[in-house]
Amino acid sequence: MSLSSRGPGDAARVVVYTLGGTIASTDVDGTGGVRPSLAGAELLGPAAQSLGDLVVDVVGVRQVPSGELTLADAIDLSHRIRRDLDGGYDGAVVTQGTDTIEEFAFALDLLTSGDAPIVVTGAMRHPGELGADGPANVAAALRVASDPVMRGLGVLVVMNDEVHAARFVRKTNSANLAAFTSWTTGPIGRVLEGRTRRYVSPPRLARVLDPAQCLGDVPPVLLASCVLGVDGRLLERAVDLGYAGVVVEGFGGGHVPARLVEPLATLATVMPVVLASRTGAGDALESTYGYEGSERDLLARGLISAGFLDGRKARVLLSLLLSTGAAPAQVAAAFTLLHQSATGLA
Ligand code: ASP
After folding, report:
1. Which domain holds residue 44?
2. 205 domain-assigned
3. What's the pTM?
């Protein structure tokens, strides 16, 4: 579809891509269990009536629970979004299952550029439940996607009338309507009385990926979380198992037991190994602790700091970088550049 740019007084145009999830789920077989089935105008439902003169086009992309989505889907969708925004849409909305929004939205953030808002949303309650939140979330997402004040903020996640930056947001409750949290900053905006409020403008992330170079075949990256008594046998087998990279979620600021140091240091000689904190917020430390297995020790042995990214988001970045064929030194440079752009640290 090719649209000319908006002239003064023209209605804003937003394109909506539907990928399934609870927001689209009904008891389509009469079994009592819901599964993704709605698309198009049916999915927009009552949200469509609250849009005023907004022009909305809906494109069905996938019809799946969000655990089925992959980074290859994010790469494909990013190309499509780019084409449609270049074609004249003012913003884009993606509807999907909430289980993987925090990873999928961040992948889109890394894969897209430009100022037009790209907003990801979903629902915690399916359309058949009392108080279903899908229509309100879609209406809020459309408001944000069509509001010039939300331009240039990177990919956003809108849930429960809150606007979150994709780089920070996490799903932190299995079923509550207020399931989405950005522990680092809080929401950057809200939708209230049908209007968008922007309280915080997150810094623009450096572009560390060329989406045109991301091949659909994304190499496997292991996310290994430290737990009490962790023995590290998976790390020792990472090469044999065919992993192309590893993200270690260390304790606290990024620490592992001494027995993992040697396996991690060995792995770091053959593939990128990224060190994140398993806590879910707060940057990985760089220069505080000096014991074996501390962040200083691990970084000195060739591990790459995840910086402000949690383990899941670091895995998304590492996977996408590897899909471009990036060498370990380029991976390290990309993590550093992204961290600097997000935090102002030089
Ligand atoms: N299981 C669903 C999914 O992620 C949950 C949701 O959409 O809220 O597809």
Report:
1. 13-198
2. no
3. 0.96
